[in-house]
Structures are given as C-alpha cells and as structure tokens.
Amino acid sequence: MATVPLASATSLYGINAFEGIRGYKNYADNKIYIFRLDDHLDRLRASCAALNIKAEIHREIILDNIRTLTKANDFADDIAIRIVVICDSIGSWSSTEAGSIAIMPVSKRRIDRESCKPLKACISSWERINGKSQPPRVKCGANYLNSRYGLMEAKFNGYDVPIFLNTNGLVAESSGACILAWRNGVLLSTRTTDGRLDSITVNTISQIARSVEIEYSERGLDRMDLYTSDEIMLCGTAVELTPIASIDHISLKGKSGKSFWERMHTKYIEVVTGQNKNFLHWLDKL
Ligand code: PMP
To answer: What is the per-residue pLDDT across 97-114, written as a single tens digit (0 to 9) for each?
Structure first.
C-alpha cells in the first residue's frame, strides 16, 4: 500500500501529472494489448515538464510493472491503467522535487455497443480553462476542478455530461473526453488550441477515418455546429467513442440504420485489440 503525506503538494494542491491507458484483450490469441503506451508516456513527460516535476519515466520499467501487476491481480480481460507522477514529499505548490510514479491497473471492460445508452449533454455555463491561465493540454489533477464544476452542474440539471465552450464561444471539450462531430459526411474535431487535451483517441480515430477514406477535419466548432450535426460523440481513452443523443434537449438529427458511431467504434475495437494489422505498431503485448 503506497501512502502520500497529507502535507504534500499532490495532496494539498492537486499537483500531479497522470495518464489513463487501456489494455484490451484479443480473444483470438487470449492476450492483453496495451494501447499507445509510448504516446501516453510522451504526453506524461510533456505534462511533467510543463509543471517542472522531475520524473524518470522509462517505458520498459513501466511496462514490466504493468505486466507484474496484471498477473498478480489475475486480470484476464480488458484493463485500464492509471499512471500518476506524484509529488510525495512535504512541500508547497512550488516544490520541484522528484516525483514518484504510481502504476494502478484495474479491470475495465470495453463499451458494449448493444447496451450503450446515448448520453444527454448540455453546454456548460462554466468556461473551459485555457492556455493563458491553466493549459488544458497538461494532464494534471488540478485541471479536473474545472471538469468537476461542469460535471456537477450538468448532473444537477439532469444531464449526463457537460460540453465546455472556450472564451471565444468555441467548443473546447467535455469534462473527461473530447468531442467529435459527424456532420454532412465529414468527421469533425475541435483543435487543441480551442482548449482541449491533445487526445490520443482523437488522433487514433482520425487515422482510422483516413485509412478508410472518411474525410476528417479539425476546425473551430460552435454551439450551432453541434446542434446541427448528424451525430456527436465523446472521444477518449476511458469513454472510447460514446454517442450523445441530445445537446440542451435538442435531439441530434441521427440517421436510420447503422450509425456512424457504431461503424467507427467497431473499427476502433479492431485496432486496439490487434485485429487490424495496419496499426500493430501501437500495441504492446502483455
Ligand atoms: N479531455 C480530457 C479532459 C480528458 O480527461 C481526456 C481523457 N484522458 C481526454 C480529453 C481524451 O484524451 P485521450 O484520448 O488521450 O484519453
């Protein structure tokens, strides 16, 4: 059992850097594959650098620990792994001590498309944090205060998730995921400069889309772009692709038959489980 002192910068001020990573079971070879470990570790290093937290992040040591912990816990199916760089000595928000690294795998199944319930979203009255004050591109605990305000408000008002706009009224992201729109035959994402995390899943989906000749574009999206889209999805490591049914009670146009979300999520699972041979370079077998 690891302990973090109450008077540490992590405990008092939420100063840490972290990643959420997934491992998916391939039922053909019965192995679990870790998805885009290198990209997650690169982003973790970038978050630590921005926060001036010194940490030794070695992929082989981390992968070894994931293997050991997965085995010790008897995880035989899909998993989620939280890697957190913690400032665990006594200090203030300005401390620049070396961080310790915690690696925490838990059992977590992929989304079941059959039972997946499309979510009710609202535009939050809270603005997303921004690059001039607290960059949302740094993945650190303290950024989730803003996420918490938005999610609390959404839930109090009977919605499932918030969608934050930035200072200019453009869509930034949700509280723990990005936003993708399927609109007039084009897959649209916001830009990182609009106030979103540089999402590994958005990048994955964009590469899958291009590989099957679906047009993908990143641009500023406003509220009306969302209201008038055919489909809107949450996109992120934890939520994978999760469909949104309505925004501010306005139902999305939708399409009859097989939805874009269903098609893309099917392809996503093929990639993360190693069934699509074009993307095997993203996988580490446990
Ligand atoms: N935005 C926020 C605020 C998040 O917490 C996440 C989840 N990490 C994402 C976007 C999606 O990023 P990724 O696809 O890299 O998981």
So the answer is: 778 999 999 999 999 999
